[in-house]
TrEMBL record:
This is Glycerol-3-phosphate dehydrogenase. It is found in: Mitochondrion. Its EC number is 1.1.5.3. Its cofactor is FAD. One of its GO terms (molecular function) is glycerol-3-phosphate dehydrogenase (quinone) activity. It comes from Gossypium darwinii. Keywords: FAD, Flavoprotein, Mitochondrion, Oxidoreductase, Transit peptide.
């Protein structure tokens, strides 16, 4: 049995460990396996295309040409928005044999989809209401998300994995309470569970009575999003980042939307893209897109801000998260290991919609205060390496009679002929959200797909054939050729850290990156203490539509999210390599540096933020 099959077998079981007074109880009742159909001929032909070692995504110029059309030869679907849902819609529609285009104002995953908690989860916070509040709707939502979680992990195994999460219990009632709830939620298991070394033995004025361990999924969110975009491109979709909708095109007689006027934000040129249906998947910005069609459209979005901070790795052990479902003020608090560092969060407060949301320093302070209650180590504000804010697009159905209830589920609507809007939901359910949106678009445009939705059984680029042991082949077969400051080329070992990073970030395509590092003398690290290589900049410019320095530090690599100071120091070399790949002149390079520095200022850290109360000095 392959490692991926074994991993998914584990994901189909339940394991809840209750650790109390030095003992542990492990329950592993079986859960029915996923019987998704396989062997669909379209899936097989697409797999060959997507996983062809020589396959290269069409150039940006070709993608733009494919979007430009006429009334007599329109696209079937034009997607507005390149986040997880939008790219999911493009992939779903393209794999049904439809002609698809997608435009994104900034970059793929530049908004909410890159600023998530990095969890692929069913929603622990909704479970209490579902189980103990006897809310069947919430329970159905959680179970649906858990099913989608299995599919996300299976379809991108290099970017996703199971993560055990520990919930501390400070009285016996909590031990029973959380055990009862979380054993229903859990879908994954391991035979052993290591404790959280920095967990405090006392909290809330009480002694720790036990811990409940359950399993969730974790991902590299923006790389998963970029993988969706590139997979859609290989499947035939014309995807274009840094291109925005200026206005909609309407039929003079029926006033139905028949396309959009698009501006390429890199060249400044505008063109018309015609389509039978436009799908609005603009996340928090979907209302502004809807108002282009109807200036009197009522708002669908109730924006909520989620702030996260990144701390050094010693705050959490590798391979174990800590989640407190309800703090003293009712919020969820967590600490999760991620890419060699620790993510802590989060907040959930109303906010305004802005392209670059910034975390409020009071929110950062709240997170530090909250985790301090559960740790036996000194929590210091000087340890904050990066902090960011993401906008959750909580949705209100404009067609619902009762609009008081804000949905954590997604909403699909067509208020204006030819414009289907999909919003709400969460990362975990992006695939089923996309499926619902494409179904609605097919109905709206009377489209004729060649087959049903097949994305539940379609590996993303780099995922097919990937095994956790792939990094060993990289370490054994490649060297990192590095240019010294004096220009001399010296060989360097492809160490385990670099090899593992390439394997998980690029999957089976990691060998392409390693080849660039070896053959083009781009094997040097971009930042001290991080495994990112110069070769990745060149690879992403050639194969992942990386068009700016910000695209790389935020979405292709995760340096901006992990360490703002390291990202800042890496910028000159990143821009130098991108200038070579894209033929930038000195003026463009200077502009890139300025924009990237301004972007990093929106990521608060101990280097650029001021904490006033002195509690965590």
């Amino acid at each position: 049995m392959s490692a991926s099959a074994t991993r998914l077998r584990r994901l189909a079981s339940v394991a809840v460990a209750v650790t109390a007074c030095g003992g542990a109880v492990l329950l592993t009742p079986p859960v029915s396996s996923n019987d998704r159909a396989s062997g669909h001929p379209t899936v097989e032909s697409l797999r060959q295309i997507i996983n062809d070692p020589s396959a290269v995504v069409p150039s940006r110029t070709l993608q733009e040409s494919a979007l430009i059309g006429t009334k007599s030869g329109p696209l079937d679907i034009l997607v507005v928005g390149g986040g997880a849902t939008g790219c999911g819609v493009a992939l779903d529609a393209a794999t049904r044999g439809l002609r698809v285009g997608l435009v994104e104002r900034e970059d793929f995953s530049s908004g909410t989809s890159s600023r998530s908690t990095k969890l692929i989860h069913g929603g622990v916070r909704y479970l209490e209401k579902a189980v103990f509040g006897l809310d069947y709707g919430q329970l159905k939502l959680v179970f649906h998300a858990l099913e989608e979680r299995k599919q996300v992990i299976e379809n991108a195994p290099h970017l996703c994995h199971a993560l055990p999460c520990m919930t501390p219990c400070f009285d016996w009632f909590e031990v029973v309470y959380y055990w009862m709830g979380l054993k229903m939620y859990d879908l994954a298991g391991r035979q052993s569970v290591e404790l959280f070394p920095t967990l405090a033995s006392k909290g809330k004025g009480k002694s720790l009575r036990g811990t409940v361990v359950y399993y969730d999924g974790q991902m590299n969110d923006s790389r998963l999003n970029v993988g969706l975009a590139c997979t859609a491109a290989l499947a035939g979709a014309a995807v274009l980042n840094h291109a925005e909708v200026v206005s909609f095109l309407k039929d003079e007689g029926t006033q139905r939307i028949i396309g959009a006027r698009i501006r390429d934000n890199l060249s400044g040129q505008e063109f018309d893209a015609y389509a039978k249906v436009v799908v609005n998947a603009a996340g928090p910005f979907c209302d502004s897109v809807r108002k282009m069609a109807n200036k009197d459209a009522l708002p669908m979005i109730c924006p909520s801000s989620g702030v996260h901070i990144v701390l050094p790795d010693y705050y959490s052990p590798d391979g174990m998260g800590l989640i407190v479902p309800k703090t003293k003020d009712g919020r969820v608090v967590f600490m999760l290991p991620w890419l060699g560092r620790t993510i802590a969060g989060t907040t959930d407060s109303s906010t305004s919609i802005t392209p670059l949301p910034e975390p409020n320093e009071n929110e950062i302070q709240f997170i530090l205060d909250a985790i301090c209650d559960y740790l036996n180590v000194k929590v210091r504000c000087t340890d904050v390496l990066s902090a960011w804010s993401g906008i959750r697009p909580l949705a209100v159905d404009p067609n619902a009679k009762n609009t008081e209830s804000i949905s954590r589920d997604h909403v699909v609507s067509e208020e204006y002929p030819g414009l289907v809007t999909i919003t709400g939901g969460k990362w975990t359910t992006y695939r089923s959200m996309a499926e619902d949106a494409v179904n609605a678009a097919i109905k709206s445009g009377k489209l004729s797909p060649s087959n049903e939705c097949i994305t539940s059984n379609l590996r993303l680029i780099g995922g097919d054939g990937w095994e956790p042991s792939l990094f060993t082949a990289l370490a054994q077969q490649y060297v990192r050729m590095k240019k010294s400051d004096g220009g001399k080329v010296v060989p360097g070992v492809m160490d385990t850290a670099a090899a593992k990073h390439l394997s998980h970030a690029y999957g089976t395509l990691a060998e392409r990156v390693a080849t660039i590092a070896q053959n083009e003398n781009l094997g040097k690290r971009l930042a001290h203490g991080y495994p990112y290589l110069e070769a990745e900049v060149a690879y992403c410019a050639r194969n992942e539509y990386c068009e700016s320095a910000i695209d790389f530090i935020a979405r292709r690599s995760r340096l901006a999210f992990l360490d703002t100071d390291a990202a800042s120091h890496a910028l000159p070399r990143i821009i130098e390599i991108l200038a070579t790949e894209h033929n930038w002149d000195k003026s463009r390079q200077k502009e890139e540096m300025q924009k990237a520095k301004e972007f990093l200022e929106t990521f608060k850290s101990s280097k650029n933020a001021h904490f006033h109360d002195g509690k965590h000095q």
